[in-house]
Amino acid sequence: MMISAIDTVEIEKSKTHIIVQIIEYVHNAVVTKTIIKKITGNITVSSFDAGEVLKEKTYPFDNYIQIIDGTALITINRKEFSLRLGEGIVIPAHAAHSFNANEQFKMISTIIKSGYED
C-alpha cells in the first residue's frame, strides 16, 4: 500500500541546508517537501521508498528532475531512462511520464510555469 505525503510549507529562507537531508525515506511511501512554491513555478524534493511507483501523468510545463540520492527509473513518452546520483533530465511539457523506484531514491523537481503564455 503506497502512502503519499506532501508538505507544502516552503523551507526557511536565508538558511543553509543540505538538500539530501531535507527529506527522509518513509517505508512504503513517496514523500514530497516544498522548497519554493510560486505562481510562476515551484521546486520540490521527493523521496521514494523501494518498490514505489508514481503512475503516468502529464503537466503543461517543462519539469527538470535531478537525482540527489539513489537511482530512479523514469519513463517519458514510453522511453525509459535510468538516472543515477547527480544526473538530471527535462521532462517536456505535455509529455506522459512516470517514476519507478527499483531502489530508494531522492530527487529535486523544478517546474517553470512562465513562458507558456503564447
Automatic annotation (TrEMBL):
Transmembrane segments: none annotated. It comes from the Bacteria. InterPro entries: RmlC-like_jellyroll, RmlC_Cupin_sf. This is Cupin domain-containing protein. It comes from Candidatus Opimibacter skivensis.
